[in-house]
Amino acid sequence: MKKPSILVLYTGGTIGMMKDPKTGSLVPFDFGNIYQNMPILRNLDYVIDFYSFEHLIDSSNMTPEFWIELAEKIEENYEKYDGFVVLHGSDTMAYSASALSFMLENLAKPVVFTGSQLPMGMVRSDGRENFVTSIEIAASKINGVPCAPEVSIFFENQLLRGNRATKFNAENFNAFSSGNYPTLADVGIKIKYNREFIAKPSGGKLIVHKKFDRNVGILKLFPGITLDFVKHALNTPGLKGVIMETFGSGNAPTTEWFLDELADAIRKGLIIYNVTQCKSGSVEMGRYETSLNLDKIGVISGYDITTESALAKMMYLLGEGFSRSDVKKYLQQSLRGEMTV
Length: 341
Ligand code: ASP
Hints:
The chain has helices at residues 33-37, 64-77, 93-103, 127-139, 227-234, 256-267, 289-297, 307-319, 324-331; strands at 5-10, 17-19, 26-28, 47-52, 83-87, 104-105, 111-114, 141-142, 145-146, 151-155, 158-161, 166-167, 176-177, 185-187, 191-193, 207-208, 216-220, 241-246, 271-276, 300-301. It is of the alpha/beta class. The strands form 6 sheets. It has an 8-stranded mixed beta sheet with strand order 4-1-5-7-10-11-14-15, with helices on both faces. The chain has a 4-stranded parallel beta sheet with strand order 17-18-19-20, with helices on both faces. The protein has a two-stranded antiparallel ribbon with strand order 2-3. Helix 3 packs parallel to helix 8 (307-319), helix 5 (227-234) packs parallel to helix 6 (256-267) and helix 8 runs antiparallel to helix 9 (324-331). The longest helix has 14 residues, at 64-77. It is globular, with a radius of gyration of 21 Å. The mean pLDDT is 93. Aspartic acid binds at residues 13-14, 58-60, 89-91, 115. Aspartic acid is lined by residues 13-14, 58-60, 89-91, 115.
């Protein structure tokens, strides 16, 4: 029988970092060191190939251009491998996994993002387990069918849907949560796949979307927000879409100036997407008077989408060049399982 084949794509991040002897801070190291630190990889009965991006980055430097490079590498190698593991810093991993989920339409193979809180070279590193389990997940098949054929994030002991995950802890090994969608797999002695929650491939050919529009922004509401701040944010030159992080189930101040600013921006063509600041639960426009107003002036609901996913989705839809009304329509539909409508 043919051995499972996995392509590991290394982008940078803590998992492959070392201490710079001069400054004492963590900097990315050359990919060759991963084999040195993990001889056990040679024992897996898989074909594991590595591709290291030329510029390894701390994921705080992630850009849509890098997402495109990453998707192109997957596209180039799609037929050759059974699955893909993306080694990525945890800081912006949820954004990248969301972006890739929108880019890879009709994906039928696993793309597992993983990283670590401690560099692989450190004695107590979580990187080794995360890495080995991700490879196993990317290679797992039942009756020839991949167990988790979607863009996911594996950390500590949970496999999460990538566009549902959020980094919620900067220190714990268990760094990601998915407040509105169950785990795709739970990992202990065994890897238990929660089949009913894992995407079923459409059977269509992989289509890779490679355009993003960066003219978007995030406006997080807070008590005491000023007219000047809202005005400046909404009147940013070229701005096409705003993810507005509201309170609770999608609520915002009822102050007249605030609603007028939003209504004015919407009239001029801005798309405002209502996403909750809560890590779990959904926007329900009209449940309170404080969100009914938003509905009336044309703010659209993001239901239970994460901010990371909302941002990637808006950049993707605007980048695809859809009409404004189509962008609004798709924002309110689940395209890759990113929200519950
Ligand atoms: N700052 C790092 C990064 O996101 C943290 C990590 O790798 O987890 O690249």
